[in-house]
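In response to the reviewer comment on reproducibility (Comment 2.3), we provide here a single inverse folding case reported in full, input and output, so that an independent group could reproduce the run without further information from us. The structure tokens appear first.
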């Protein structure tokens, strides 16, 4: 159990230090002795034989093998590699679609002892109350979470409507909570750069608090990147290429290399290998991990495996995931196995699979042989229930109305890096006929703050959809979003989620093909990870049967990010088609009657 309010000052306790000093001198026994292993020194890059003595949550001694045997408890680390507990420097538990307790069970067993959690998915549905819920949920767990105050709820004010609106006053209140470690990723880049009064006030609240401001600098470079940083942002995880990665390192950002875009990793590793020094400002992060990936591959440990397989040394990868992250977080108690540091320690079986044999958090063994043994109780989640406030829909609700016989419509072209487009379409019975080569996208406000009616647009270069998919995981306002090749299947998929209280659904040929129910905030389930992963895998397979994905951009993951209005380019929202760079909102995709 982690007391977020007490750390890191808890290690300053005089009685604890007195006991640790006595044990280090040899005048008292250790509480726990880890003996016989090989220490991975993330400060020097060495791997050397060493034993480690603990007193409570404190490392009292790192000493020569077999120099001591006096301890209340012994861990035989023979054959193991001993490293600091892993630190995930940017992530969202909600993306794993399970509760914090379930997530903790999965990650502790893999060697992750600290996460930097931005609960902005929950906050976009429920506001600051959800951030307080996140704090309470983590407090009961042995997984440490540095929780950040969501900065962009909604991500693009005026262009979309979320379930809450977090302004500077709400930010100031959250930053005063001792459990809050800083301002979460500043996604509204345009307003930060333009010094928009709302975003500037939110930024200033963070700077006045003395807590760091985390960034989201997708596509920023040169003068715009400098302006973003000059406003007070000090990190980024939104990498688009190796050149982008290097520019942000050179600019002085703390770069959170994430595993959620694995197609970039080979070129980024290649760029790292050209540098004369290993960057101390690079950390590792998962950002978003789907439940089946979490179950089968893990999280931060999976990223470390990928990086070492691509040619990084285990010491380099582990340093980024431990010591570098601790420096970024200004947590000198974390990230290094040394006397006087916090006893967050993982014993790996090897430095290829990075399978954790034992995991120690705050001096206590919390996981062994791939299983979390420490209690991970769930927190009452009634706050998160009944979040989909949408009536049942019909196929006609998804149709675009128009005058005349033929119209020009605006299109949203390309997944991920969107562009504006135009094309002609026929009109029949007062409705636009979906042109060949387009995919329908509809977003319905689901939070009860506006009328719950579909705002439908047209996507191009999204493949040929032979059915529909609906999701309430739709970054970042998490409105009900439906993709489809026809309006009938769209209504079936949407109505399944309305009834289930949220999640994901696939429909085709007039029937529901798969349903992943996520009744908590429309984002997560309180079921076990393996059950959620099984349903999610079935849902993803069903989606793959109605559209041919074209990696790296047209992928299943693109569906949950298609409405992210703070990113450059057009995006469909519950208000229309937004363009954050231009500052415009097109309420209706019909541009003119021909």
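Designed residues, in position order:
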């Amino acid at each position: 159990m982690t007391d977020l309010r007490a750390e890191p000052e808890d290690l300053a306790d005089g009685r604890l230090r007195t006991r640790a000093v006595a044990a280090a001198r040899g005048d008292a026994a250790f509480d726990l002795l880890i003996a016989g292993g090989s220490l991975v020194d993330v400060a020097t890059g060495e791997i050397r034989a060493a034993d480690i003595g603990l007193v409570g949550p404190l490392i009292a001694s790192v000493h020569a093998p077999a120099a001591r045997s006096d301890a209340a408890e012994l861990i035989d680390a023979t054959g193991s590699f001993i490293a600091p507990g892993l630190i995930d420097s940017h992530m969202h538990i909600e993306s794993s679609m399970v509760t914090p307790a379930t997530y903790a069970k999965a990650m502790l067993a893999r060697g992750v002892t600290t996460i930097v959690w931005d609960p902005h998915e929950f906050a976009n549905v429920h506001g600051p109350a959800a951030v307080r819920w996140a704090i309470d949920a983590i407090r009961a767990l042995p997984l440490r979470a540095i929780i950040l105050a969501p900065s962009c709820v909604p991500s693009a004010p005026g262009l979309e409507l979320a379930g809450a609106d977090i302004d500077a006053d709400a930010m100031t209140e959250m930053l005063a909570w001792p459990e809050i470690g800083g301002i979460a990723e500043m996604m509204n880049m345009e307003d930060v750069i333009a010094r928009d009064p709302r975003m500037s006030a939110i930024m200033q609240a963070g700077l006045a608090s003395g807590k760091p401001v985390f960034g989201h600098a997708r596509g920023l470079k040169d003068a715009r990147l400098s302006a973003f940083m000059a406003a007070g942002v000090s990190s980024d995880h939104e990498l688009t290429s190796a050149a982008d990665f290097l520019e942000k390192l050179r600019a002085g950002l703390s770069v959170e290399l994430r595993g959620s875009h694995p197609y970039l990793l080979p070129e980024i590793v290649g760029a790292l290998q050209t540098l004369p020094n290993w960057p101390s400002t690079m950390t590792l992060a998962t950002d978003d991990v789907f439940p089946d990936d979490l179950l089968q591959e893990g999280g931060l440990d999976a990223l470390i495996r990928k990086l070492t397989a691509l040619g990084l040394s285990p010491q380099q990868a582990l340093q980024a995931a431990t010591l570098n992250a601790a420096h970024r977080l200004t947590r000198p108690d974390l990230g290094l196995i040394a006397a006087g540091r916090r006893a967050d320690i993982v014993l790996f079986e090897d430095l290829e699979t990075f399978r954790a044999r034992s995991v120690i958090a705050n001096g206590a063994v919390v996981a062994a042989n791939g299983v979390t043994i420490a209690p991970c109780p769930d927190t009452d989640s009634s706050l998160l229930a009944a979040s989909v406030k949408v009536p049942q829909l019909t196929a006609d609700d998804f149709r675009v109305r128009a005058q005349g016989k033929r119209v020009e419509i605006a299109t949203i072209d390309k997944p991920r890096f969107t562009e504006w487009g135009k094309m002609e379409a026929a009109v029949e019975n007062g409705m636009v006929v979906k042109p060949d080569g387009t995919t329908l996208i509809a977003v319905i406000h689901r939070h009860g703050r506006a009328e719950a009616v579909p705002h439908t647009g047209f996507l191009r270069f999204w493949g040929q959809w032979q059915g529909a998919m609906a999701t309430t995981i739709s970054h970042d306002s998490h409105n009900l979003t439906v993709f489809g090749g026809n309006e009938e299947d769209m209504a079936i998929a949407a109505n399944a989620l309305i009834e289930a209280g949220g999640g994901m659904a696939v429909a085709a040929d007039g029937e529901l093909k798969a349903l992943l129910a996520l009744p908590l905030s429309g984002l997560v389930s309180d079921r076990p990870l393996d059950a959620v992963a099984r349903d999610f895998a079935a849902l993803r397979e069903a989606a793959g049967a109605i559209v041919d994905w074209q990696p790296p951009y047209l992928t299943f993951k693109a569906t949950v990010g298609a409405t992210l209005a703070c990113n450059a380019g057009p995006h469909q929202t519950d208000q229309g088609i937004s363009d954050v760079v231009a500052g415009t909102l097109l309420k209706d995709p019909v541009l003119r009657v021909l």
